[in-house]
Amino acid sequence: MRGRQQLSKHDQPLLEAILEALPDLVFVLDRDGRYHAVLGGRDDLRYHDGSSLVGKLLHDVLPAEVADSFLHRIREALDTGSVITYEYQLSRDDVDGVEGRIGVPDELWFEARVAPMETVEDAGELAVWMLFNITDSKRAMQRLEEQQHELERLARTDPLTGLLNRRSFFAEAARELAWVRRTGSPAVLLQLDLDLFKRINDTHGHAAGDHLLCEVADLLRTDRRASDVLARLGGEEFALVVRGASLEDGRRLAERLRAQLAALRVEHDGQVLRITGSFGVAALVAHDQEPEAALQRADAAMYAAKRGGRDSVEVAGG
C-alpha cells in the first residue's frame, strides 16, 4: 500500500509524535554526509541518543571506512532516484559524540533503506536513511548456522575421541585415492588395532577403556599434517591415510607410532594403564576401485602382525 496525503500545519504535532514514536532510527542526511535530522529511536535498549549528531558529518562520528560506505549509498540513492537497501553491522562504540550508551548491545545489525527526499527549500539534496534493527534475526540465524555446523560435525566424528568416524574416513580416503590417480603420487594407509584391549575393559571397566582410547587418539593426532586422514573405525581400531608417503615411509611411521604407543602410560583411578598395538600398512594404488581395497590389504597385514606376536608392524604388498 502506498499513501500520500497533504498535511496541514495542524497536523504537524501528530507527524512529530509519529516520528518520535518510531522504535528504529531515521536519519536525514545531505550529499556531503551531514546529519540534518535524527528521528525515532524510541527503543532505548537498542539505541543511544543521537540528537547530538545533527550538524555533524558522517566522517566526524564514524570510522572512515564505514563513513565512506554510508556516503556511497547516500549518493547512489540521490543520483539514481531509487531506494538503496544496505545491510551492515555496528558496535556500540563505533559512533562518537553520543550519550546514553549504557544498556545498548555491543554489536548491532541493521538493514537500512536509503531514499532521496523531495527537495526542501534551501536544504539542497537530502536523503532519508531508515534503519531496521535486525540484530535478533541475525543472531537467531547465527545460532541456527552454529547448530547446523555442530550437527554436521557430530555426523562426521566419533563422539568419544573426536576423530573422524568410519563413514567420514571412507569419504576422505576416496578423495585421497582420487588424488593418487590424478597426481601419480604415492599414499599409504595405516591400520591399528590395540592388542588385548578387551582385558582393559574387563579388568578396569569401560570408563578406563574409554579414557585409554582418548589418550591413544591424542597420541595419533600429534604431529599430523592437515592432509592426513585419521579416524577411529570402531572399537579399538584406528586408521590413518598419509599422502605423499611410500610403503617404506608408512612402515617407518607405523614403527614410530608403535613405539610411542608401547611407551604410553595412562593413569585412571589410581591405576596405570598400558597398551600395545598391531599395525598393518598398505599403499593406496591407482587401480583400486575404492579405498576399501587398501584397507583390506592393511587389515590382512595387521592380522599378520597379531599372529606374529602383536606389538609389531607388517607391510602389505601393493
Write the layout of secondary structure elements.
Elements: H1 12-21, E1 25-30, E2 35-40, H2 58-61, H3 64-80, E3 84-91, E4 107-116, E5 126-133, H4 135-156, H5 166-183, E6 187-194, H6 197-204, H7 206-221, E7 229-234, E8 237-243, H8 247-263, E9 266-268, E10 271-273, E11 277-283, H9 291-307, E12 313-315
Helix pairs in contact: 6-7
In the sheet with the most strands, the strands line up as: 2-1-5-4-3
Parts with pLDDT < 50 across at least 5 consecutive residues:
100-104
Find the count of extended strands (DSSP E, 2+ residues): 12
- The CATH architecture classification of the largest domain is 2-Layer Sandwich
User: Averaging pLDDT over every residue, what do you get?
Assistant: 88
The top level CATH class name of the largest domain:
Alpha Beta
In the CATH hierarchy, what is the superfamily of the largest domain? Reverse transcriptase/Diguanylate cyclase domain
The outline comes out as elongated
Radius of gyration: 33 Å
* Major sheet: 5 strands, antiparallel
Report helical residue fraction.
40-55%
CATH topology of the largest domain: Alpha-Beta Plaits
What is the number of domains?
Answer: 2
SSE succession = HEEHHEEEHHEHHEEHEEEHE
The DSSP helix count reads 9
Which structural category fits the helices and strands?
Answer: alpha+beta
Query: How far apart are the termini?
Result: 74 Å
Proportion of strand residues: 15-25%
Question: What are its keywords?
Answer:
318 residues; alpha+beta; Beta-Lactamase; Alpha-Beta Plaits; five-stranded mixed β-sheet; 12 strands; elongated
